[in-house]
Design brief:
The complex is a heterodimer of chains A (about 400) and B (about 375). Chain A folds into three domains: about 5-90, Butyryl-Coa Dehydrogenase, subunit A, domain 1 (Orthogonal Bundle); about 125-235, Butyryl-CoA Dehydrogenase, subunit A, domain 2; about 250-390, Up-down Bundle (Butyryl-CoA Dehydrogenase, subunit A, domain 3). Helices cover about 45% and strands about 15% of the residues of chain A. Chain A is built from eleven helices and ten strands. Chain A has a four-stranded mixed β-sheet with strand order 1-4-5-8. Chain A has a four-stranded antiparallel β-sheet with strand order 2-3-7-6, with no helix packed on it. In chain A, strands 9-10 form a two-stranded antiparallel sheet. In chain A, strand 9 and strand 10 (about 280) form a beta hairpin. In chain A, helix 7 (about 250-275) packs parallel to helix 9 (about 320-345) and helix 9 packs antiparallel against helix 11 (about 380-390). The chains are: A alpha+beta (about 400), B alpha+beta (about 375). At the A-B interface, helix 7, helix 8, helix 9 and helix 11 of A face helix 7, strand 9, helix 8, helix 9 and helix 11 of B.
Chain lengths: ~400, ~375
């Protein structure tokens, strides 16, 4: 056991820190914050991603051949940690960078890699993910969106849902049924769809937080060139599984943990300043127990990530253990936001729009957003099935 | 960056599990209900496995290993319900290695490594909380040494121990410190407690003007740091053993759910059962993260040692509570029988949960540290 980074890794960290200090706006995270308007915010995040690219800091995990740095796992972890520590914006093209790129690197043709990867890393083309459908959620393999081959095109008809960033995306990775006579896992293909093709339309969905990050996406006789098929015809399910395996690695989770820890520190600070009768809220033993539980659980999130990460460093493949980490962090962070509202007590109902809302209503917004954690990237129920069946060997 | 054990450390774990699976089943735990509760055969085989030599430096005849090397082994001890005073002796060894005088090391460590000394801590008092500052038993100066009177409770295996590591106050307003005394020293009387865990032995220890000399005091001078080190070491040992118990109970539950058939299906195919098992697996995995990190923090005497101990003791305690309760529930009626024996795990875990600081105590301690660390409320 050893919790230190090597001299080379520390040099990498210092280089990144120097770059961040020079490139984040002056007063960042103290007096200067991300824009609140959603569209402005999206463009701000895209600009940031382009800036990262110019500095050589976007897509660092990618091979050098495609514009990345071929960064080691440790460097990726340091990158995620440092971005979180600096409270740097998260880029907009998360799906392009993490999911599309990984999928194309594993399963795409060289031609496809040359065509798409450079524009992902440069932030010129934003991607969205057309996997889920109204009737294919946890049971993803039952997708009904159809792609029928006609000459050198597929003609796509159907509907996708929960398509985050579709309103900003130029491209979409699409799971479509190309053969309905085969068993459901075997008739699916993986397509790359230009969002400007006639017949593609989107409708924003309002989320419980009031925000509209995700959408419904409709495909009405959309022509997709055969060249945009990834891998084999009807071989899309296996490719989609690769995509999902790499959706969230332990190195990213290390960065996410730091952002949760920052929220928790802010919460404890808020509790210390919030008057509750004669004494601050933080003097209430019930509040203290809840805050302490959150401290323990969020810290263990880091330790879990470090253990998973250490296994990955030794070259052990990513397996169902990832489900354990996802199930863990999604629930403990939800608990943390529950504790946040309990800490605010009588003022908990005051939302961000109200001048009396403690910490500018950030905890109310985060609380609402946190409801998604146990649903996206495989709901908790699906994660529990995976853990029980694949790790514990329980019968189907 | 490597938060994992070495191949060698995993091999030692496997060897320990092999040894205990072969020679120390639940029948042996049941046998402890009678007699003085000491399993001498187990003590001998653990001695041969190097259990007591691990923390002893090589110059004193030991293996010169650390709490990190011990961590997986202690988890196995928990898993197999290895009784006191095995883990207690190991925790005491750590304190002697860290805080003992050269003379104490010379005198005590070689026989410890050879399994010839059983040492148990005497910390708890009937009218104290978990904070060491609550310790009320006080030694008063007398002649060249001290006289100590008062009562300690829940001293594990005091009747069969060779030495008792007594946490007391030296002088009314004085420092806390540790003294090593034999259980048959003049003025000591023991009464066996009735406890939740009949496979263990605990004693009330009454001290009536017991003489302590300088050589008895760990480090030669009373040292509050030695007391907190003992409590932290015992806390990590308890957290790790509870994690071992949780792992064992989950394995039992999963095994049962796979073979028990109701409604023409193994009950393990029902999501109500599966999902609960998955939640247990996640909690146990997180407990391991906390326990292993705490072992590292102890081994390195890291700046966040106190925090790591509190995280592990509170989280692993909550987990063992959850897993033992659910493990019995999952077994249904048979789980409630004395015969099946799941209650031995529940009982042992329960005692560990309330030893060396319960979850609420450790959470409070951690939060107080956190508030100070981040300067909360100072603007």
């Amino acid at each position: 056991m050893d919790f230190t980074y090597s001299a080379e890794d520390l040099a990498f960290r210092d280089e990144l820190r120097t770059w961040l200090a020079a490139n984040l706006p002056a007063g960042w995270g103290e007096t200067v914050f991300e824009p609140e308007d959603e569209d402005e915010n999206a463009m701000f995040r895209l600009d940031w991603e382009r800036k990262l690219h110019k500095g050589g800091w976007n897509g660092i995990a990618w091979p050098q051949k495609y514009g990345g740095r071929g960064a080691s796992l440790v460097e990726q972890a340091i990158f995620a940690e440092e971005m979180a520590r600096a409270r740097a914006p998260e880029g907009l093209n998360i799906i392009g960078r993490n999911l599309v790129a990984t999928t194309l690197l594993h399963h795409g043709s060289e031609e496809q890699r040359q065509r798409y990867l450079p524009k992902i890393i440069s932030g010129e083309e934003v991607w969205c993910q057309g996997f889920s459908e109204p009737n294919a959620g946890s049971d993803l393999a039952s997708v009904r969106c159809r792609a029928i081959r006609e000459g050198d095109h597929f003609v796509v008809n159907g509907q996708k849902i929960w398509t985050s960033f579709a309103q900003y995306a130029q491209w979409c990775i699409l799971l479509a049924r190309t053969d309905s006579t085969l068993p459901k896992h075997q008739g699916i293909s993986f397509l790359l769809v230009d969002m400007s093709t006639p017949g593609v339309s989107i409708r924003p969905l309002r989320q419980i937080s009031g925000e509209s990050e995700f959408n419904e996406t409709f495909f009405d006789n959309v022509k997709v060139p055969v060249a945009n098929l990834v891998g084999d015809l009807n071989g899309g399910w296996k490719i989609a599984m690769t995509t999902l395996t790499y959706e969230r690695g332990p190195e990213d989770a290390l960065g996410r943990q730091i952002r949760f820890k920052q929220e928790l520190d802010t919460l404890i600070d808020t509790a210390a300043t919030l008057k509750r009768g004669a004494s601050p809220a933080i003097d209430d033993p019930t509040v203290r127990q809840k805050l302490a539980k959150a401290v323990v659980e969020v810290e263990i999130m880091r330790l879990n990530c470090l253990r998973a990460f250490s296994k990955a460093l030794k070259g052990k493949p990513r397996g169902p253990e990832a489900s354990m980490n996802k199930l863990y962090w999604s629930h403990v962070t939800q608990n943390m936001y529950e504790a946040a509202l309990e800490t605010l007590g009588p003022l908990a109902p005051l939302d961000g729009g109200d001048p009396l809302s403690p910490a500018d209503g950030r905890f109310q917004l985060s609380f609402l957003r946190s409801k998604a954690f146990t649903i996206y990237s495989g709901s908790s129920e699906i994660q529990r099935n995976i853990i029980a069946e694949r790790l514990l060997g329980m019968p189907k | 960056m490597d938060f994992d054990f070495s191949d060698e450390q995993y091999m030692f774990q496997q060897a320990t599990r092999g040894l205990l699976d072969k020679s120390y089943g639940l029948d042996r735990v049941r046998a402890l209900l009678e007699g003085d509760g000491l399993d001498r055969e187990l003590w001998t085989s653990l001695t041969e496995s190097g259990a007591f030599a691990m923390l002893v430096p090589e110059e004193h005849g030991g293996m010169g290993l650390s709490f990190v090397d011990l961590s997986l082994v202690l988890e196995e001890y928990g898993r197999s319900l290895v009784p006191a005073p095995v883990a207690e002796t190991i925790a005491a060894t750590d304190v002697i290695v860290r805080h003992g005088t050269a003379e104490q090391e010379e005198r005590l460590l070689p026989p410890i490594a050879e399994g010839r000394l059983k040492i148990v801590p005497a910390v708890a008092e009937a009218e104290a909380g978990y904070d060491p500052e609550d310790i009320g038993v006080t030694a008063v100066p007398s002649g060249n040494g001290w006289k100590v009177s008062g009562r300690k409770v829940l001293v594990p295996h005091a009747a069969t121990a060779d030495l008792i590591l007594l946490a007391i106050r030296f002088g009314e307003e004085g420092s806390l410190g540790l003294a090593l005394i034999e259980p048959d020293r003049a003025g000591i009387s023991l009464r066996e407690h009735a406890t939740l865990d009949p496979s263990s032995r605990f004693h009330q220890l009454d001290l009536d003007g017991v003489t302590i000399v300088r050589d008895d005091i760990v480090g030669g001078e009373p040292s509050a740091a030695s007391v907190t080190r003992l409590l932290d070491a015992c806390g990590v040992v308890a957290a790790t053993m509870m994690t071992g118990i949780s792992g064992k109970v989950l394995d039992q539950a999963v095994g049962y759910a796979k073979q028990r058939t109701q409604f023409d299906k193994p009950i393990g195919s029902f999501q109500a059962i599966k999902h609960r098992c998955a939640d247990m697996a996640v909690a146990i995995d997180a407990s391991r993260s906390a326990a292993y990190y705490a072992a590292w923090a102890l081994a390195e005497d890291a700046p966040d040692r106190r925090r790591a101990v509190s995280m592990a003791k509170s989280y692993c305690g909550d987990t063992s509570r959850f897993v033992c309760n659910e493990g019995i529930q999952l077994h249904g009626g048979i789980g409630f029988t004395w015969e099946l024996g799941l209650h031995f795990y529940l009982r042992r875990a329960k005692v560990l949960e309330y030893s060396y600081g319960d979850a609420a105590y450790h959470r409070e301690r951690l939060l107080a540290d956190t508030i100070q660390q981040i300067g909360a409320g100072r603007g």
